Every structure is written in C-alpha cells, then in structure tokens.
Amino acid sequence: MSEVCFTALCDAPLDVTFAYLDDYRHVLEYWHGMTSYRPVGDLDHGLGAVYESTIKLGPSTQKSTIKNVCWEKNARVSYESISGMRSTTGFVFRELPGDRCEVEVRIGFTLPGGIAGRALEKTLEPFVSAAAKNTAANISRVVSAHYARQVAAGDAGSASA
Questions:
Q1: Which run of H or E residues covers position 34?
Q2: Is 64 within 8 Å of 83 (Cβ atoms)?
Q3: What pTM did the predictor assign?
Q4: Pairing of strands 60-72, 76-84
C-alpha cells in the first residue's frame, strides 16, 4: 500500500473547518482530481455514511465506494473503501491559536490487479503526491475563503456550510 500525508492550514476556527470538510457537497471544490462524489444510502455524513467517488490520477481514472468508519466531531474523520480501489483516508483536526486550524490528511491506497496493479500504483505515486499538494492548498484556500465570507456576512459564529 502506498501512503501520502499532507497538512493544510486554514484561517478558520476548528468548528468551521470541520463542518466545511464534513459536508460532501464541498469535496469537489478542494479534492484535486475528484470528478464525482455522492452519498449512497440514507446517511450523507457521519459514522456509517457511504459514498461513491471517481478520481482522475494522471492517466488513470479510479472509482471507489467508501465508508465512514470514524467520526469524532471537530477531531477526526476516517474512510475505508468497500469496493473499487482499495484505500483509506483520514483527517485529523487540530485547533490553532487565532481562529486557525490544522488539518492532517493521510491517504493509503492499493490498486487492484496484482503485479499490473502494483506497477500502475508506482506509476501513479507522483500524480498522487502532486494531487495531495494541490488538495492541501485547496483546503486552505476554500475553507479560509468560506470563513471570510461568514465573517463579512456577520455569521462568524455559525459553523454551518
């Protein structure tokens, strides 16, 4: 399994950052290469929620169905694939001074297909690393902008998206 880790710094409080990233409707705004992401079933967030996703990584497009396996409000969220590309994704949220937040993201993935899958996995690693860097920058940018809009609208106390 390949693993990529990155950290995003957001100019927004912990509760605002968590609420924004916990809302599936925002995933396409920040996740580099993600072309579709939608809930499947009755839950659209939280423990047990299931999502179908499609991501383009370099020359490859991968589809997965993922399940939320850990959800601790304002602390951490984790997902594991239940079909498609084998993957794990975890977000850990840390409050920083001055209404700021740090989000650590850890992604592990294994492509299906034995030797061919492992070869493609090695080919895709640079694309995944680049996507992680872009995703970190996107998280920082979109969450910070979201919070700035809340402040400008006089709604800074609201953690809603």
A1: strand 34-40
A2: yes
A3: 0.87
A4: antiparallel
Rounded to whole angstroms, the Cα distance separating 8 from 17 reads: 11
Distance CA 145, CA 124 (A): 31
Q: In what helix (H) or strand (E) does residue 139 lie, and over which residues does it extend?
A: helix 114-152
Cα–Cα distances (Å) from 155 to 24, 90, 159, 160, in that order, read 21, 29, 9, 9
Sheet hosting strand 76-84, strand order edge to edge: 2-10, 100-110, 86-96, 76-84, 60-72, 50-57, 34-40
pLDDT tens-digit series, residues 49-101: 999 999 987 777 889 999 999 999 999 999 999 998 888 999 999 999 999 99
